[in-house]
């Protein structure tokens, strides 16, 4: 007798919240599919946390702060040392999760984990980073000293494009300073972030110090408004970042927003040609252009303009494929919506008169026909008024601008409202120094295409790319996540009768 064959269907895993040191199943009625951008396979489902769940996460962090703030510096440092070891042991596993949900190539994903690891390694120095200052005998018998105390509960809101590195820009140093934390990762690719949090607890972090909620605008607004959250850090788009900064600031919180960009790469004719072309192509098209530090505008100065055909030819030769293919140079874009937005802007560039030298739209990869693939795209004759220049495409698209002189290139860049990053390729020390001195951009690369500084220097984007005086990483991160308390102290001898009442402001 024939029997019907049944096939077991593997259920799509539900991404949990993380509250009180353990997974917490959400009771939300609103969920979002997490999609592999190369295959369109649904790989997970993520909840949009309820108000009660957000309040529970904050309350748990607030309670944990009572003891965590008094945990000795050396004990916090030892947890961070263990944590960096665990991340190093799990680079491949973290990278695979990034690639599955974001789409970037495995080598690029592994590089992201390493950049996040740098920040954790920096946090391992907390015992010396959090030292105060003292002036003995600032007045007669009076000592004045600063101490850097944790704020309380901090919150972090991160974008999809670096699901490991961006959270590492936030919670490791905040926690090392004695704060507790509520993290809201991107709902588009949360699994690698969740694994990062699990490793933090494997390192010995006490329950409740680090908590995770998921969601969209409603959850973001709750974090900005919640009276028990003392500081909010955001990395993402300019539109959302401006909203977060204003809303959190109006709620009396310390806030920082690292936002959008339009980064420029200036190329002088005296540059090492091979290095310059290879670097500018990698900076424009790596991660399918989905980096806030991508150099999406190339400014060819003088005779360097003759290099444009070679730039186009090398870009056209890049391999587009799934991130799991280690030979691929760029993978898919994170979502259909992101790809369609980029395609719409490219068409606007054509309609507005920019010259499309290389069109990556409609790119198909054998075996992955449903993937969100776009090949390298290059425009020349781009005007400052073109949509492809005024807006952040956040896709594998390069705008090429030509100038006669370095002064003209500097003026062109300084006229752009953004100030996240810029770079110059030259063999002239004079030109490099002139550029770094006169350019009005927070992060400058000289023969370095993506000038994201090492973690013990601060991330210093400027102008429209940043809101808040203090950025992530380096010394600025310590100052952001701590309150400077200044103590003025005098101790009297038991038999010191003093010299009468002092009604002046001076110390005697």
From TrEMBL:
InterPro entries attached to this UniProt entry: Ald_DH/histidinol_DH, Ald_DH_C, Ald_DH_CS_CYS, Ald_DH_N, Aldehyde_DH_dom, MeMal-semiAld_DH
Keyword NAD (UniProt): yes
Ranges annotated as spanning the membrane: none
Keywords, in A-Z order: NAD, Oxidoreductase
EC nos: 1.2.1.27
Domain Aldehyde dehydrogenase: 27-487
Family (UniProt): Belongs to the aldehyde dehydrogenase family.
Full protein name: methylmalonate-semialdehyde dehydrogenase (CoA acylating)
Organism the protein comes from: Janthinobacterium kumbetense
